[in-house]
Amino acid sequence: MRKVGVLFFLFIFLTLISAKPGDYNNLGGGWTEIGGMASLGDKLYIISGGKLYETTKDGKYKSLGGGWIEICGMTSLGDKLYIISGGNLYETTKTVNTSLSAEVG
Q: Is residue 61 assigned to a domain?
């Protein structure tokens, strides 16, 4: 009887942790007018509708500000995010709460 319990537990465990190629999780919608997306640390940064958003692995997000127009590129290097907006290159800096900030002119 104990063998059956162990085998059942092992089967359930392997079923839950095994992902098949092509599997995905929907983390939410509503992202429009995407200007760029880049990862930095354990967060994902997305420009959507002219606003910069910081997102977590589970899909939660917060706005870091707007005014991002004519996005030509977005990438991370080291601990900073770089965005080309309206023909200008912007470098982000980390604030006290570890979010990113950049002035858009």
A: yes
Q: Which residue in 79, 45, 80, 43 sits closest to 65, CA to CA? A: 45
| Domain annotation covers residue 78 | yes
pLDDT of 15 higher than 80: no
Q: What is the CATH number of the domain that holds 62?
A: 2.20.25
Average of pLDDT values for 29-58? 90
Q: What is the mean pLDDT of residues 94-99?
A: 48
| Residue 24 within any structural domain of the chain | no
Sign for the CA dihedral angle at 89, 64, 25, 19 comes to: positive
8 A C-beta contact, residue 35 and residue 74: yes
> Residue 82: what pLDDT?
93
CA distance 51 to 34: 9
In angstroms, the CA 66 to CA 62 distance is 12
Mean pLDDT across 48-70? 90
- Examine residue 14 and state whether it is found in any structural domain, yes or no: no
